[in-house]
Hints:
Helix content is 39%, strand content 23%. By secondary structure, the protein is α/β, with parallel strands linked by helices. The strands form five sheets. It has a six-stranded antiparallel barrel. The protein has a five-stranded parallel beta sheet with strand order 2-1-3-4-5, with helices on both faces. A hairpin with a 4-residue loop joins strand 13 (319-327) and strand 14 (332-336). Helix 5 (138-157) packs across helix 15 and helix 7 (196-202) crosses helix 9. It is elongated and about 85 Å long.
Amino acid sequence: MRKKPVIGIVGLSDGDPQVHEQLKEIVKEQVDAIVNALKASGEVEVVEAGELVCSVRTAKEQAEYLKRMDVDGTILSYGVFAFPNFSAVVAQNGKGPFLLAANLNPDWPGMVAMLAAGGALNHLGIRHFRASGDVTEPEVLKKYIRFARCARVVTRLNGQKYGLIGGRSLGMYSATVSMQDWQKKFGVDVDHMDQSELVRLAEEVPEEKVEKALGWLEDNMGEIRYNGSSFTPDKLKTQISHYEALKKIIKENEYDFVGVKCHYEMSRHYCTECICAAFCNDPYDWDGPKEPVVYACEADSDAALTMQILKLLTDEPVIFMDVRHYDSEYDVMVFCNCGSQSTYYATGTDDHRENLGRTTLYPALDIYAGGGCHVNLMTAPGHATIARLNRREGKYRLTIIPADFVAVPEEKMKETTEEWPHVFAKLPFDHQIFLDKFDANHCHAVYGDKTEELKMICEMLDIDVEILGE
């Protein structure tokens, strides 16, 4: 279930007491219209200020009140002309991001107030957004809801804790990050833990829990291709134990999202971590429905952060994938990663039986001498948004790629690595642009067109945006 954004709203008025008394009902009417429209949408929870702002004192008091109410962002509503300094005080003392809102009403200069307030905030370097027009109009209401969703992402991201389990994998520069930069830019704390904790805690998992999980997998998986050597029921139980250990690590350390190195300490000497990757990202496991927890393979931290932003935006699992190949026969990019992706994407639903029924556990490739399985599935068709945080000379930007996931014959998976999960994606531009411009070997995706939301999130975070192909 989507967690609704919580947005504060305050109405601003004239600073002259007599004029305010004459116009306060107009101001309140505009606030009520926005509140009623947002509540009726079912998408947003609204917290109203205790009174209208008509002085510096009330501006500070109401801003602080909404901040104490732990809102994700604040709407400043203008039904008449409001002194711009009130907006400045609200913004300096309240909880951003901020949306300035005015109706298109020729009888009253609410629009004048919004523009004057916007100029004041820009003078002060306070980033903000604007919505003008009748909130009952679908396109106008959409602006409010988009702002609310994006504010929720930025606000909830601030203060989160990322579990970096292991260090840099396979020499990837694009996977490592500065904990100082993350704290300053995103408000995210990076906590490092050694992979040995997975091994140690796996030994403490009760046998009955492991047996329960094994039975659930054997009952629900489309196929489990044991090979009698590197991939056996006992080796699958080892992978299950690692996943149970990871769940304990996440809970006890209060990690909001994680990245796990895997290669080669784990994959070569213990087992691949593919079961961890699949079911951590899934909305279910053998214990029933659960909250997906973003897991990035190969400890790719910028991957994990991209995925967490997408998850906070959609409240859905997020795909982790390798950029592998361009297939000219079907004109698709082939994304195929050595770890795993959420089995949710076999159908794009929470139906674990249907999803697992379309999933195959293959023996791990010989290069991963620790053994265990890879988790194979083909991502279900649907319009999607691919995204990836990149850095160029230390500055972040988000690359966004609208795409359509398509189904192709299953035999096509044998042309790359059949054992791994596959995404086949049609891009709205020549594939060579992708290969020439994209700055990472991993990328991430969710269903739906999230381009406008991601652009707004980037503006809130002061991150550059790159819409590939434009």
